[in-house]
Write a structure and sequence with these properties.
- The complex is a heterodimer of chains A (120) and B (276).
- Chain A is 27% helix and 43% strand.
- Chain A is of the alpha+beta class and 120 residues long.
- In chain A, strands 3, 4, 5, 7 and 8 form a 5-stranded antiparallel β-sheet that branches. A 3-stranded antiparallel β-sheet of chain A has the order 1-2-6, with no helix packed on it.
- Chain B is mainly beta and 276 residues long.
- In chain B, a hairpin with a 4-residue loop joins strand 16 and strand 17.
- The chains are: A alpha+beta (120), B mainly beta (276).
């Protein structure tokens, strides 16, 4: 009798762990695969660069890093729900008429990068 | 235990495949979306708004024609005549600005155009408008208050209400215009109105979008950038596949000098137009 109960408890516990693991694994997969965003605009302002992002994917994104010419730069934090958009500002001393390679990376590793030329 | 593991594995795989399929579809749709900004131009005037009701003649009389003849500048006219001595003329017409297309918040001024002919050139003709604040007809603030001296044939008289236009336009966009002669004189004049209309002075932009892709494009933001400013405007515009759409925005002024206009779709595509 006791052995039956123990077996039942072990089976239920095993199922619970399996379901939780499935939920976590697929959830992570879905979120990583569902990330899409674009850079709507890059604005070279005095003393910094502003980058306007739009979340075009199906999951919330959080900007984890912005690189200018492969060097990470301080920026204002930005989280965007699907279809949301907004500015993030970098503190950066840029030179006129110079091409910069700007890369934006999310907390899940999705990245968008392109070259942008500063105004004269 | 093995069966359970297989079930869990199957669920994970199915989930990933389904989600991958959805995201692939999203990416596929994005690649199929192709649109351009084929032109960007400044809009400085609305269309002309003509009267939709008969003129009210308070001095003088209507001889022939109707207000319909004053809606198009085509030589077909409505004739009025000065009163019997003291031979004066005074008539009012009501005009409505389409505030759904031209909200007053984005209007910078109002212009009045009168195309008319008279058989006596001896006196000047005046345009006034009803001042909704002082509740009387006035031409205070008009760029021309000295009237118009007609010559033979058709005459065009244009008046700009300058920055006083707000006093002459009701919140619903109504403006009442008065036409009157200079003073009593020796001739009982016939006055033919071929065209009388008002229009608004605005500072907006007309964009022409062309959807060359096979998917409907949902345009969600417009950027107008120049060297000094990057301005973003929300929009919510659907352009069907193969369609060319002309889109007027009175709240978007084009900068002087070189600028870049960008439009962004919900799927994340961008079309750019450069102008100056």
């Amino acid at each position: 009798m006791l052995s039956n109960v123990l077996l039942l408890v072990i089976a239920v516990a095993g199922m619970s762990i399996s379901i939780t693991a499935t939920y976590v694994i697929t959830g992570n997969f879905r979120e990583t695969m569902g990330e899409r965003f674009i850079v709507e605009d890059v604005w070279f302002r005095p003393g910094g660069i502003s980058v306007y992002l739009r979340n075009t994917g199906k999951t919330r994104i959080s900007v984890a890093g912005i690189y200018v010419d492969y060097i990470t730069q301080p920026f204002t934090s930005l989280q965007l729900e699907p279809l949301e958009h907004g500015w993030t500002n970098l503190t950066y001393t840029w030179m006129p008429n110079t091409v910069y390679y700007i890369k934006v990376i999310t907390s899940r590793g999705t990245q968008v990068a392109d070259y942008y030329k500063s105004p004269p | 235990m093995v069966v359970l593991s297989l079930v869990v594995l199957a669920v994970i795989v199915v989930n990933v495949i389904l989600w991958d399929y959805q995201m692939n579809q999203l990416d596929w749709e994005r690649t199929r979306e192709t649109f351009t900004v084929s032109s960007v131009s400044r809009v400085t005037r609305s269309s002309w708004f003509v009267t939709q009701t008969e003129y009210e003649v308070t001095e003088g009389s209507r001889i022939s024609g109707s207000y319909l003849d004053t809606q198009i500048a085509d030589g077909s006219y409505e004739r009025f005549r000065e009163s019997s001595p003291p031979r004066g003329f005074d008539a009012n017409g009501t005009f409505s600005i389409d505030t759904s297309d031209f909200p007053l918040a984005y209007v910078d001024g109002v212009e009045i155009l009168l195309r008319y002919a008279v058989d006596d050139n001896g006196e000047r003709w005046f345009l006034k408008a009803y001042n909704w604040t002082s509740e009387m007809y006035s031409d205070s603030g008009f760029n021309s208050t000295s009237g118009h001296a007609p010559s033979s044939g058709w005459n065009s008289y244009t008046v700009n209400l300058t920055n006083m236009w707000r006093s002459y336009v009701s919140p619903e966009g109504r403006i009442i215009i008065k036409i009157r002669d200079q003073q009593p004189d020796s001739t009982r004049t016939n006055m033919d109105i071929d065209y009388l209309a008002v229009r608004t002075v605005v500072n907006g932009t007309v964009f022409t979008f062309q959807n060359q892709g096979s998917r409907t494009a949902h345009l969600v933001s417009i950027w107008v950038n120049d060297a000094a400013l990057h301005r973003r405007y929300e929009t919510d515009l659907f352009v069907n596949s193969g369609e060319t759409y002309s889109y007027t925005r009175l709240d978007i002024p084009l900068p002087d000098g070189q600028y870049t206009a960008k439009v962004i779709s919900e799927r994340g595509n961008t079309a750019v137009h450069t102008g100056d």
